[in-house]
# Entry
Amino acid sequence: MSKYYDDVYEMPEYDALLYTNKKNKTRRWSVRIKLQGRNGYIVKSCKTTKLHLAQEFAKKLHKTITDASGAGLDPRRSYKFCDVFEEFLGFHHRNGTLSKYRYQSLSGDYGRYFEPFFRNYEVQEITSPLWERFKIWRREFWTEERLAAATPSVRAIAAVNPTSATLRVCANNFGQFIKWCARQGYISHAPIIAGFQSNKQELKKRGAAFERTEWARLISSFKDDAFEEGNPNLTAAHFHQRRVIYYISMFMCGTMMRPSEAFRIKWRDIRWKPNKHNPNNEDLVIDIPAQVTKTKKHRTSIGTCSLANHMRDWRQLSNWGERNDFVFPNWGGERQSTMNKSFVRRLTELNMVYSHEGIKRTTYSCRHTGICFALDRKISEIDVSLLAGTSLVYIRNNYYSKNMERRSSDFATQFSYPDDYEPTR
# Structure
């Protein structure tokens, strides 16, 4: 028996020894449990001076250790939710396996929602029913009072009634954490992390496409900015940023790529090839790496012939046209995250921020516009879905009106009565 022990109470049926330390003035009990089949002990403070409470603590700890060992887990690791989630964030930070923006999303959800709700649980205790309880708690988290007390940066992204997109990101973040726990041996079985039920009454709020005349006005305006002459106040950095907005807008429309994908593309991912129908034209082929795409699966996108010419021009103009350079970097060559503020500012000047349905336009509208234009050119829905990196069901559910409009004359003719038709009463 150790010379540092004072009071000792043995629990052989649990391979446990309760003791108080002579140097501990609070006289709190600690427990030491022998690991079966492994070298060493697990030692924990019972955080109580009462023997019967220390005994209960020892019994629960023994069960936790036994369950962990039986599931093939290491009982010496900390399985407290907060410890594991911080290790999860640290793992990705050390290995650089998350983009800065993905890391911010995960750490933000952890600090605001996951940590307050799950802080008293161990990761093995997280079950599907517990996750369902969290979903209810998350939906009701932001009240008017809590929102008023929040910082301006939090108020900018929080809402009393969160959108389906916000809740979907929250569920995806937690699901990613749970899958990592399973891979790293923190849990033996990953519970089902079902997404939030979408609000069927929720209307689309942003990303409306442009009509052809609107798109022509917008691109013409960006072009005037990109090649403005006679303004001594414009520096090389100003021209670079203006030209990035001009060329990336056409790029997203011509390839149907997402803004997050376009900003991460490098010149090595783009190639030109002869057009087999017209030797004077070129095809623009973009090999989008898996780590760039939203779906994390490699895909090939094709740009229009006119876009192929524009991209050759941009590579000549850009100060960053080497193989490993970003296609649309900031001034300095680093990856750019967004241009939405400048984009919306120009829409405001042109009185084009909202569509005729009242839906706000953003940089994402370039992608939607490209999809609509592709359907107008009679490209099949399946080809559009593959090139855009989305599902056929999504294309049909969200862009069917474009097909209806394109075929309006066909429908109108088929639905018309013959000239000699006389309705009977």
Q: What stands out?
A: The first helix runs from residue 51 to 70. The chain has a mean pLDDT of 88.
